[in-house]
Design a protein that fits this description.
Distance between the termini: 47 Å
Organism: Pseudidiomarina gelatinasegens
Protein name: SOS-response cell division inhibitor
Radius of gyration: 15 Å
Strand order of the largest sheet: 1-5-4-2-3
Order of helices and strands: HEHEHEHEHE
Strand content: 15-25%
Keywords: Cell cycle, Cell division
Mean pLDDT: 80
Number of strands: 5
Oligomer: single chain
InterPro entries: P-loop_NTPase
Largest sheet: 5 strands, parallel
Low-confidence stretches: 1-20, 132-137
Structural class: alpha/beta
Helix content: 40-55%
Number of helices: 5
Shape: globular
Length: about 140
């Protein structure tokens, strides 16, 4: 299975086994990078930390083969809380992947998250599009 997935993954143009952990900012849909996330999650038994996502995004990760027991889901009520949680998750070094749904980041915050990712050797994906919330009325 692992070889089959690696072949499928490499067919998409990624070389996950030599990938250097880094912060990647993307506007892509989660579906576009699920194979890459799954392959990265196989590298260690550490947490997959998800910050600011909806429940259906967690279900997408589980459907892609990431164990629910390895997903640490953090909510954030504000942009500041999500940014802080992302930085702390990276600096803790207990996650193999950190996925964050943040709005626009200041250049200073982008630099802080890049440095935290580099120092901790943690792959991090920051999605610029915030998941829409269910209206209250």
């Amino acid at each position: 299975m692992r070889n089959e997935f690696t072949k499928q993954f490499n067919d998409l143009g990624f070389d996950v086994w030599s990938a250097v952990p880094a912060l990647e900012t993307t506007t892509n849909n989660l579906d576009d990078i699920l194979p890459r996330l799954h392959a990265l999650s196989l590298r260690t038994n550490q947490w997959i930390t998800v910050i600011g996502a909806r429940r259906d995004l967690i279900e997408q990760l589980v459907s892609a083969g990431i164990s629910r027991s390895r997903i640490r889901w953090v909510h954030g009520r504000s942009q500041d809380e999500r940014e802080w949680a992302t930085e702390q998750a990276l600096l803790a070094g207990t996650s193999s992947l950190v996925l964050s749904w943040l709005g626009e980041l200041s250049p200073r915050m982008q630099q802080r998250l890049k440095m935290a990712s580099k120092v901790s050797q943690t792959h991090s994906f920051v999605f610029n599009d915030l998941p829409s919330l269910t209206p209250l009325h």
